Amino acid sequence: MAEILIFRHGPTVWNAEKRMQGKSDISLSEQGIETVQKWQLPKEWMEMPWYVSPLQRAQETAKLVGQEKFTTDPLLIEMSWGNWEGQKLPELREKLGPEMEKMEALGLDLCPPDGESPRDVQERLKPFLSRIGKSDRSVVAVAHKGVLRALYAAATNWDMRGKPKEKIRDNCAHLFQISSAGKISVKTMNISLLSSIDCFPIPVKPSNHPEEAP
User: Fold this and answer.
1) Is 212 part of a structural domain of the chain?
2) How confident is the model at residue 210 (pLDDT cuts 50, 70, 90)?
3) Residue 87 within a domain
4) How far apart are the first and last CA of the chain?
5) Which of 25, 146, 173, 212 has the fewest beta carbons under 10 Å from its own?
């Protein structure tokens, strides 16, 4: 059974302003840089293959935690918010009224104009998960909140209507297991990146024919 330790990039100005970022290529804020510089991962996880979203906030995050050797994977890019990117959710709710309420009630199928739904993200991630599952080893990924929510929903059958069973916290890594068929399940959520590295589980050892490290 393969494992993926995945965490969200550090904070940006748009995060602080609670704007929808999506595929907008926003860099880390000064506060975000300071935050990520405090994160730690054990040596064992630093030596695993790393996969990083192409957006600069994720690329910067990987480098700031000390990882220079990674593969940029476009499948890990954030969910597109389409015409809503740069906007704030409360303002959209006020502007669209009942129409927005109906859209939010769609859960996994909420799709902004010219954007993606969480279900679209799940479909997009399937080839990535299949590839990792077949490798039968541990990997690390730096991605985005929308990607994390889509993975968690797939792992727990959460339809994204209402709150998840577990809050997906920032400044944390999240460990999922992936079968050889690409099916994902939760192993450990919310492993603090700010506390002792001793709290991290030991990564799965590679199989006899592991996927080559990037």
Assistant:
1) no
2) very low
3) yes
4) 20
5) 212
Q: Is the CB of residue 175 less than 8 Å from the CB of residue 187?
A: yes
Task: Answer yes or no: are the C-beta atoms of 4 and 141 closer than 8 Å.
Answer: yes
Q: In what order do the strands lie in the sheet with 138-143?
A: 71-72, 50-52, 138-143, 2-8, 172-178, 184-192
> CA dist 190 to 8, 101, 211, Å?
11, 30, 27
Structure confidence at residue 197 (pLDDT): 78
CB 214 within 8 A of CB 52: no
Phi then psi for residue 173, to 5 deg, are: -105, 155
Q: Look-up: residue for tokens 């409360």?
A: 90
β partners of residue 138: 3
Tokens of 194: 């700010």
Tokens (6 digits) for 72 = 């940029």
Q: What integer pLDDT is reported at residue 206 of this predicted model?
A: 64
pLDDT band at 109 (very low <50, low <70, confident <90, very high): very high
23, part of any domain: yes
Which residue do the tokens 């993606």 mark?
116
Domains in the chain: how many in total?
Answer: 1
CA 141, 210, 129, 57: dihedral to nearest 10 degrees? 20
Range of the domain at 143: 2-199
Residue 181 maps to which CATH number? 3.40.50.1240
Q: Please report which helix (H) or strand (E) contains residue 120, including its range.
A: helix 118-135
Classify residue 193: in a domain, yes or no: yes
Q: Distance between CA 150 and CA 51 in Å, rounded?
A: 17
